[in-house]
Design brief:
alpha/beta, 19 strands, 6-stranded parallel beta sheet
Length: about 450
């Protein structure tokens, strides 16, 4: 049996001193306000449930040169992530059939340092019981849809009429629908004459696109009763509509991402496509409103939306924002980047647990992974909220060191990560072999 102690253990009752005893991959006992003599003493480092990131693009099979299960889960472990859920694109084939799902699960086996679950995809061609229900029975945790071009032609966007077919099926099985909420409308095009301009890119994806899409999804949620989730919210002007939906009692949830909280448009120089994502990083005032949305409980949790690609697709050499792939690589730095900004706004490590572990674990159908309790899985991160480090190519574990976090000084250094009681990462090194489990089906 293994014992670990800290004066700052995040328990359901709050932060306190405790010894955690681990046996057979589970938390055998929690000794509140006690330090057992045999326990490894971590002083005032924070011990909390591992980060759960339900928005990761692993891209394997098919685009493994962008990322893969080995590299993604190594990066996850280094960032204190013990569970991630893989998006149905940008793999090839996309995860929109049972056959494609089986293929992805097969290639993921024996490659993962952390536990991995899977989202399926809703596209116009599969909005029927014959396709969706076998995927649910096979272990898909929920389904993702786009309301605008996904960037991948084989994953076409869905209309309101498509979703009216799919959402009752998901509601019957208590499965959530995740939505990329942008509805294309009037906006200035990013001119070919200014391909490096971030301001031109930002203007080409206005808040109104998100706001209209979210209004539509609230109506569809009300109409179908399907649990509806807005991914990567960037538009703070949608928060009043979200507040009304929640006050009405609709099963409506929302996530945002570290890059919308850490960066702001005014600080992004032209010619740096590593900052490009969809929806875009918006202005400083918008970011402050997102922070307030987190405080007010309108935004339920924070995920990375780790969406890497090859360096060539980012057009770094020419600083071509217009033609660059839109996506930010960040999986390893979610906890630290959020904490860096949160610590100045009155947030605590307990808030980090709620926003990056407890709430996303519940959303992903694995609530036991977001809480430290006797009999629960020993999925833990031990981190120092008072330690700072600089992101460099040498300490990045995802496949390509192309990220706007490069050279950023972040607070909150991960010391150790445990998955099912096994230390998979410590002090810059990965231990054990990749023994993460595939999470098939919801546990609630």
């Amino acid at each position: 049996m293994q014992h670990i102690y800290s004066t700052r253990v995040i328990l359901p009752t709050g932060e306190q001193a405790a010894t955690i005893s681990i046996e057979d991959g589970k938390i055998h006992r929690i000794h509140s306000d006690q330090r057992l003599p045999e326990a490894e003493d971590f002083g005032d480092l924070v011990i909390m449930p591992g980060v759960v990131d339900p928005h990761v693009h692993v891209n394997e099979p098919g685009r493994t040169e962008w990322e893969g299960f080995r590299s993604a889960t190594r990066a996850a472990a280094a960032g204190g992530v013990t569970t991630l859920v893989d998006m149905p694109l940008n793999s090839s084939p996309v995860t929109t059939t049972l056959e494609a799902f089986k293929k992805k699960a097969l290639v993921a086996q024996h490659k993962c340092w952390v536990d991995v679950g899977f989202w399926g995809g809703v596209i116009p061609e599969n909005c029927n019981e014959e396709t969706l229900e076998p995927m649910i029975e096979g272990g898909i945790l929920g389904f993702k849809a786009f309301l605008i071009h996904s960037g991948i032609d084989e994953f076409p966007h869905s209309t309101a009429e498509d979703l009216r077919k799919a959402m009752p099926i998901l509601a019957k099985h208590n499965i959530p629908l995740l939505v990329h909420a942008e509805l294309e409308g009037e906006a200035p095009e990013h001119p070919e004459s200014a391909p490096q301009s971030y301001a031109a890119f930002l203007a080409s994806r206005p808040k109104a696109w998100e706001d209209r899409a979210i209004d539509m999804m609230i109506e569809l949620c009300r109409e179908t009763g399907c649990a509806t989730h807005i991914v990567h919210l960037s538009s703070a002007s949608a928060l009043p509509a979200i507040a009304k939906a929640k006050a009405e009692g609709l099963p409506f949830t929302v996530e945002t991402c570290p890059h919308y909280l850490y960066f702001h448009a005014e600080g992004i120089p032209d010619g740096h496509p590593e900052y490009k994502c969809m929806p875009p990083i918006r202005e400083r005032e918008n970011a402050e409103q997102l922070w307030q949305g987190l405080k007010d409980g309108l935004i339920d949790f924070v995920v990375t939306d780790h969406s890497p690609c090859t360096p060539g697709l980012k057009h770094l050499e020419h600083g071509d924002v217009l033609h660059a792939w839109g996506g930010i690589a960040s999986l390893q730095f979610g906890l630290s980047s959020v904490w860096t900004r949160a610590r100045k706004r009155g947030f605590t490590p307990t808030d980090m647990w709620r926003l990056m572990s407890q709430a996303p674990a519940h959303f992903a159908g694995r609530p036991q992974k977001g809480i430290l309790q006797e009999g629960g899985p020993a999925d833990l991160v031990i981190w120092d909220p008072n330690a700072q480090f600089v992101v460099s190519a040498e300490n990045i574990f995802f496949k390509h060191a192309v990220t706007p976090y490069q050279n950023q000084a972040l607070w909150g250094k991960v010391h150790k990560t445990f998955v099912a009681g096994r230390c998979v990462y410590q002090y810059g090194e990965h231990l054990q072999k990749p023994t993460g489990q595939l999470l098939l089906g919801r546990a609630i």
